[in-house]
Design brief:
GO cellular component, one term: plasma membrane
Keywords: Membrane, Transmembrane, Transmembrane helix
Protein name: ABC transporter permease
Distance between the termini: 30 Å
GO molecular function: ABC-type transporter activity
Pfam families: ABC2_membrane_2 (PF12679)
Number of domains: 1
Length: 282
């Protein structure tokens, strides 16, 4: 029955397509990856190059660099710029890189269901014997694969400049642990966007706006909470579990990774439950 469903989905997406497209259309998972290959490559390369560029500035820091950081920025990880791990935790993994993967999750998740429903293409897919839950799971699996690819490119970029940027004090395990959390952070916001689109049927722009706005708000809460004496707010955001355990220094934190994974699973589960029960179409 699984093969029949996948073949049916392939026939639904194949008329007039090229040989490579037909080869990748054996399932919704591979078809989604193929359709998003270019934008995924851009996300991965841009994030990797940004991480590499910021990491390369570390040797140029002076001993009093930490004293010149505004107090408001210390909640974003800029409280220890003298050590390699402290610098990367702030300048690379605490500032732009997490925001980029948040927007990746929001933008990609908004396309998984919302874009197809908005265009009417979702009706064509679901007219074949492909369950809604199966389609949703294949789509989120493709999004997760993209998140892993982005994290892997960032990891490779930092390991490539590790010696020249004087980052040898950070172990390969520490870099890997932070990259794993980066992929899980992207998955959380991807699951949120996909779940919202599946549950509500709202348009792509709306889903992206809600998800990206939630991400920016959570990021701000995490960064500014210490300034207002409300550190407990940090525990309500995924950014705390992404970087609060300082994986660059302490390695893989199973509990933090478990929270991020469980959050993604709950968001997708709720989205799938509602997706199975609501009317499709506009």
């Amino acid at each position: 029955m699984t093969a029949v469903r996948d073949n049916a989905l392939s026939r639904a997406t194949l008329p007039g397509t090229s040989g490579p497209s037909r080869a990748f259309s054996r399932s919704a998972y591979t078809k989604t990856l193929f359709d998003n290959r270019r934008i995924l490559a851009v996300w991965a390369l841009a994030t990797g190059l940004l991480a590499m560029a910021y990491a390369g500035f570390y040797p140029q820091l002076t001993a009093d660099a930490s004293d010149s950081v505004p107090e408001a920025m210390r909640g974003f990880g800029f409280d220890d710029l003298t050590s390699a791990a402290g610098y990367l935790q702030g300048a690379v993994f605490g500032l732009l890189v997490p925001l980029l993967v948040t927007f990746y999750g929001a933008a990609t998740g908004a396309r998984m269901i919302s874009a197809d429903e908005e265009s009417g293409y979702l009706d064509l897919l679901l007219a074949h014997p492909v369950s809604r839950t199966r389609l949703l799971l294949h789509r989120i699996a493709a999004l997760a694969t993209g998140a892993v690819l982005i994290a892997a490119v960032v990891l490779g970029a930092l390991l490539a400049v590790r010696t020249s940027a004087e980052l040898d004090s950070i172990s390969a395990a520490g870099f890997t642990a932070q990259a794993v959390n980066l992929a899980l952070l992207a998955l959380v916001f991807g699951a949120l966007a996909t779940g919202i689109g599946a549950a509500t049927g709202k348009g792509r722009a709306t889903v992206f706006g809600v998800t990206a706005g939630t991400g920016v708000l959570a990021y701000a809460f995490h960064g500014f909470a210490p300034q207002i004496g409300a550190d407990w707010l940090r525990h309500l955001t995924p950014f705390h579990y992404y970087i609060g355990g300082e994986p660059l220094k302490n390695g893989f934190q199973l509990a933090d990774a478990g929270v991020l994974t469980a959050t993604s699973a709950v968001l997708i589960g709720l989205g799938a439950w509602r997706f199975d029960r609501r009317d499709i179409g506009r």
